[in-house]
Amino acid sequence: MNRRQWIYIVGISLVALVLGVLTSQWIYRSNLADDPAIKAFFDNSWKTPDGKLVDTNSWREKVLVVNFWASWCPPCVEEMPTLDKLQAEFKAQNVLFVGIGIDSPSNIRQFLEITPVSYPIVIGGLEGSTLSKQMGNTQGALPYTIVIDAKGKATSSKLGKISEEELRKAIKSAI
Predict the structure, then answer these.
(1) How many domains does the structure of the chain reveal?
(2) pLDDT tens for residues 95-149?
(3) Which end of the chain is least crowded, N or C, by CB within 10 Å?
(4) What does the H/E/C string look like for 54-93?
(5) Same domain, 21 and 106
(6) 144-148 and 63-69 strand pairing
């Protein structure tokens, strides 16, 4: 290949790269939960693994890190220590983590006996899976994490295991 062909290939590659980045940012933004989905999240009758109703009004006006997970999901279990660590770190800054278990209450209770966390865990079941999809998880896979600012607007989301750096950045941008 001559020099002119190399320049042509490099030019096309750069254009493709820029278009790919711009498109991925649009897709990332377009999958955020809309107002009705967030309203449905707050209006849901969430229950603890012990069957007690949760008062979601206490969750309002906080930055929420909502994590859809299951005890049978290895990446979900792997990220829980990070979620617990960041909950402790950001608690004083009006940040609350909420785990929505897409699992049976008995499985979640057994799991939490072995792996306790400092943030609320609620039972999602099939309704939780549907709500996860409404909140931007188009694939319905786990784990799925969404950050909601204190005004009730979704600011970021991540399908798959989230790293400490990614989550820290998402929380700071929502505060």
Answers:
(1) 2
(2) 999 999 999 999 999 999 999 999 999 999 888 899 999 999 999 999 999 999 9
(3) N
(4) CCHHHHCCCEEEEEEECCCCHHHHHHHHHHHHHHHHHHHH
(5) no
(6) antiparallel
Same domain, 78 and 13: no
Q: Cβ(122)–Cβ(48) under 8 Å?
A: yes
Asked if 121 and 140 sit in the same domain, the reply is yes
Alpha-carbon gap, residue 149 to 155, rounded angstroms: 7
Q: Are residues 58 and 111 in the same domain?
A: yes
The residue type at 94: N
53-76 confidence digits (pLDDT tens): 999 999 999 999 999 999 999 999
Residues 15 and 71 reside in one and the same domain: no
- For the record, the structure tokens of 27 come out as 């897709």
